[in-house]
Protein 1
Amino acid sequence: MGRNTRLVLILAAVFLAGVAARVLRGGNRESRVTFPALGTFATVVIETPRGTDPQPLLRGADSLLRHLEMETGCFPGQGVEALNRAGRASLRELDPDLVRVILLSDSLHRATLGCFDPSVGPLVRAWGFPDSPEVPDRETLDSCLRVTGWELLELDRDSLVMRPGMMLDFGAVAKGYAVDRVFEYLRSRGASSCLVEVGGEVRCGGDRLWRVAVRHPRNRGYFRVFAMESGALATSGDYECCLVRDGVRYSHIINPFTGFPGDGAQSATVHAPTCAVADAFATAAVIGGREAVEGFGPVEGMGVLLLTVGEDGEVSSWSTGVLPDTL
Ligand code: ADP
Ligand code: MG
């Protein structure tokens, strides 16, 4: 047996050992598994009819996530990283998932009035998120801002050309996109109900209610718990990945117009039919806050919950559109 085969078998064994299963009323079986993906953790919960083996579906979800991580994350020498290095690409030669993320980002950028902008790559790097965050000096910010702006890309149906120094970062949409892809894969392969979550971005569906909680932005508890039948919920906030300097909190969500972390809201939760849209809108809502959200492009079935934290630590909420029922 070759070394690689053995390694794959060991990984598969570890993967299978991590699956928690239980039989539900009506005889359906629920399987739940969590594994590392896209720099965070992914959880998949599926319900399958009695007598069907859930393992092929769970393994399929895992390998789909591996593929998406390579193409849409920052995997060295692959996908986005290779694109940034080359500075140009023929869309026919890129992976179809990466092309979909690029084209989707193009419309999400316009729908969010420019707040969602994957060209923030140089700014994100200058701020050092996530590994070694530091406040950059003015000169660095200015030079990053000169190569920030989705409009600076030449993008048409065949090709993409970046300006020298530009760097794309799909971190604000890639997890949501992965959730959608895995969710649709599982449903098309016979999961009667399922929930897919990657790094807090969730999509669920089927014939049951799912409880999805939104974290409190300043303590370990929950701010609200939603009961969802179907659809997606994504949250962005200044508490997950941030730097505190001289009492000022700087988050990893960067305003592409100023180069500074977004401060329109401290937490934004977006409910939408698909998770890629919810993910990008949640990031954009943290930057733009209420005023911008009111001008964002309409998405049918969308709802937004914004939380702001006052100087006294008091949390205020504001919402618009269609949110799931609260438990
Ligand atoms: P999380 O990763 O915590 O779920 P988000 O979905 O809001 O948070 O994504 C934040 C990531 O998106 C950042 O780490 C960065 O890579 C990227 N990013 C930061 N600011 C923007 C922006 N204005 N538009 C698009 N992507 C952004
Ligand atoms: Mg996001």
Protein 2
Amino acid sequence: MSKPGSIEETAVNHASPATKDSDSRDLTQPPESPTGSRFVKACLCQPVDRTPVWLLRQAGRYMPEYMTVRKHHTLLEICRTPEIASEVTITAAERLSVDAAIIFADLLLPFTPMGVDFEFLAGEGPVVHSPIRTLEQIQALRTDRVEDLLYVSRAIERVAGHFSSPRPDGDQLGIIGFCGAPFTLASYMIEGGSSRNYIETKRMMYSDCAAWSLLMEKLVTVLVAYAAQQVEAGADVIQVFDSWAGALGIADYRDYCLAPTTELVRRIQALGVPVIYFGVDTASLLPSMRETGADVLGFDWRISLAEGWKTLGYSCAVQGNLDPITLFAPEDVLRSRVNEVLKDADGRPGHIFNLGHGIVPGTPVENVIRTVEWVKEFGVR
Ligand code: CP3
């Protein structure tokens, strides 16, 4: 069944924060869980039979099945070929037996239709060939070619088709679409790749208000239309990755990023799906991130889940937050850390077990599988 909020409608309906047409979700009310999915229910803080679990970067280089595919294809080929992207997504979800599948794609894919060329260099990560540093370059960014990203939707359709019937335990596997948040995507465009100090990004933020605002606006336009395509294709939830928001102080986050991110979150929610908003090193930003209205906040491991959730007054669902490097620890240490996260959540509705950031290459697969099994055993309401 297709979801409310068509691509055309969303792309055109730019300035409107939602709730206008009859199809859109009334943001004063939580959406009803459309499926018997404990993952979707937990996103909405509804009670579930046991803690749902999935893992950031569950399809990645630690997994031999992924490396076999990767031997024959580049990362971008995998992302842009729906048959392969869907297969990689499905294989990881089934191998780990998790409660949700995140579509195999990358944060930077929307750069191409915006007119920003990039590639992934081995050992270096993403490289943008002509970093965006001026108002003129931002004015030239295209926002009208989001249809070029429909290969992601085709992959989602295949994943949704594969998981359309409930699993043996009666639960429907959740399907997660995703996009980057405006700040994190802008940082890749402006720096030209990964960064330590975000000097050029912050320089533009502080000194060229017109350029920064236009960049935020264009990114939000593209990301809303891209998310709409994913929802239309069958994504149950959209995760917004603000991986590098932790580089910002509270005042900078509030002055330069909160408004565009809030607009993005609200407009995705208006499509009828919950939003998970995730960042790394964000302990001090959590109350501000909460103001975006996201249904779920993702935590990294530097804050205890108990403390972070309490700080938020239990006002939304939370996702996290095992340190992914714990997956290298001996069994007893790993097991006790998994239990601590579950104890921190204390059986409250609205906890989704996850890592505090993505699984890294070299992680022992058997530890990842065990972790999922332990959550299923112990994360019982
Ligand atoms: O299961 C999954 O989560 C896989 C899907 C996925 C990928 N990228 C594939 C990928 C997702 C959700 C992403 C999001 C993404 N991409 C983020 C946000 C998540 C986070 O880590 O905070 C970011 C920052 C990017 C940008 C990006 N892509 C970087 C910085 C790198 C290089 C770092 C690295 O791990 O090598 C990538 C490459 C990338 N994207 C890989 C994968 C599986 C690994 C490279 C490969 O296969 O060659």
Protein 3
Amino acid sequence: MHHGDLADAGSLIRLLEKIRPDEVYNLGAQSDVRISFDIPGYTADVTATGVARLLEAIHQLGLPARFYQASSSEMFGKVREVPQTELTPFHPRSPYAVAKLYAYWITVNYRESYGCHTSNGILFNHESPRRGENFVTRKITTAVARIKAGLQEKLFMGNIEAKRDWGYAKEYVEAMWLMLQQPHGDDYVIATGETHSVREFLELAFDRVGLDWQKYVEIDPKFYRPAEVEHLIGNPEKARKNLNWSPQTKFAELVCLMVDADVKLLADRCQ
Ligand code: G4F
């Protein structure tokens, strides 16, 4: 393990010179959409300009490293078409999404300007038991486990009508790797092609432990965002065709595996 910082160009140059990697996967960002409204400047510095620093370090050192940028479906924002593809125009709705848009285009720009092998994975929401507890899926599954165990009484939520295209993170990481094994860099939507509301996630998650979600969930406007992305659904056809990649885990399976993992984690902690 090495330490670097996307806000510090010198640290990136030193690290890359030392490691001389064949492949660079940039998953680094201030990645919380709601928090980006509170810290737009920091979000821009790390999530946007940080990518320029990283690409420039690779370029200046003359490394032949292939580069992956974690682009986001949040860039589609106020969606212009349904489902979203690699050709759908962007309309970002948060400082985070605006920063990701810069990162997307600077990645394309190094490919077009210098012939670098750079790729954007436009990943729709990808979840797993390792998801941070500030994101909605894990917030729900940790609360379900705690409520079932009698450790928590209520779960306070924001906009539960928002719809997302939720896939399993483990499978999406394989898509990232596949992009860097291609002869040329390119941009790909990685999604399931299905959309579900936060409300549906709540229903399934509580149902998994035999509880009725409506008895435990309350709405707190403090979790609403100044501008919301209401409806995301991706079309992963290009990835299916060019990368031979397709999502395997269905929405209900994903909810169950996350709830089961949090129930087990809590039981292990309590022993
Ligand atoms: O889980 P979320 O916070 O994820 P969001 O905003 O869709 O972004 C995630 O996915 C993106 C890929 O599309 C990534 F680029 C990004 O870095 C991040 O990983 O919220 C999902 C939805 C939103 O509409 C939000 O308003 O859930 C809604 N929601 C309702 N109540 C809530 C809550 N979100 C959170 N975090 N907490 C709530 O209490």
Protein 4
Amino acid sequence: MATILLEVATPDKGEVYAKEINMLITRSICGELGILPKHARLLTELIPHAMRIKEGVGETQLFVSGGFMEVTPEKITILADSAELPDDIDVERAKAAYKRAEDRLAKKNPEIDIDRAEAALARAKARLLVKGVHMG
Ligand code: ATP
């Protein structure tokens, strides 16, 4: 089966993932993208979500909080603001972030930065989804 190298790095942690994979399903600001080996060149911005990485018969999820993805026929390079494999996600921390963001949005206080709270909520939701936790 043909493969393409996937590299994911963050400013905090450096390299988070580097492996030959068969397919990546990811979400960009323009919608969902399925990347196979020999994909056309592409540069796009990612939104917070759980990417699906297909390797052989298996599938791994990898949370990314947003960032940039460059695709060439041989390689996918993602520089994410943050990225975590399922085992590295702290559920209680994500639940706390979810509640904080939800409370801020519910109060409709004119001083809150709505975009920031919505982005925090989206990150928390995506992390919890990876762990199979559904809130509210
Ligand atoms: P919080 O409010 O809990 O910090 P956040 O969404 O604002 O959440 P980020 O800015 O995306 O956090 O990430 C900051 C750092 O903390 C990154 O290195 C990220 O991988 C890590 N991180 C954030 N939330 C979690 C979590 N629930 N489990 C594991 N690592 C996390």
